[in-house]
Amino acid sequence: MTHPTHIRGEHLLTALSLAPRGVPVLPLRAGKVPFGNCRTCADNACGGRPNMKTPGPCECPLPCHGWAAATTDPDVINSPEWARAWREAAAVAYHPGGAGLTVVDLDNAQAITWAHDHLPATRTVATTRGEHWIYRGSMPSANRVRPDVDIKSTMAYARWLGPGTGTMTPLPDAVRDLIVKTPAPAQPAAVTVPASARGGTCPHRTPTYLARGIAMAEQRITEAAGAVHNTVFTTFLAVLATHGRCGCLTPAHTERLFAAAQARGESPRHCADAWTNALTKLGM
Known about the structure:
Radius of gyration: 20 Å
Helix content: 25-40%
Number of helices: 9
Strand content: 5-15%
Distance between the termini: 44 Å
Number of strands: 10
């Protein structure tokens, strides 16, 4: 979908105004989602961009790596490679963690009331359904830390909805504790691949093959635009189909996948069930 010229121009001008202030920006398409991987980078085959300061092996000039494509470089933002994205953009997003910020995303009036009762006042920005409370300081991101409350900071993006009102305050322990108090990751030992399924010839000629597969799976879960539960199951299924019979998967790998799923709001029980169902479907 291509948006009117004046809207496209506003998104680009907004991005160019934020970049000099140290706010990494990227275009969003309709549905408030980032632009998907290009063919070269499909399924993160390029190796991805692990964080903002160290882009990693991928040299793709397109804004096709979600939050990790966000940049403060005006030459990149205004480049021909980004021009098509701006033509189709529905909004501007930014990487809060890359700007040293944390956004508490309050999705409705009840969540806002809870925040007034439990969190220090800070800068607020009105959203379609609620408010963003913005604190100075970064932390890990997590969804559904409590009903209708998400944390957006490192490895996440938030829509830019204006500068907001109020004075920004330092990130308080009350926000950090929202993640500390979330349920511990489910222990996958009880649902790992049974010994009878192991012992096949390992197809992984280099350790990076498995490492890249796990990283791709984490990204697929993290960037799921919707139907997260189904995405988690199909991702678990793909990982087990590729790596599950040779015995190379370890509890550490499984814990990483469970952690990615729980960061998107899946419960430990749902993670365990999805893993078990994937094993059953594959006859493992």
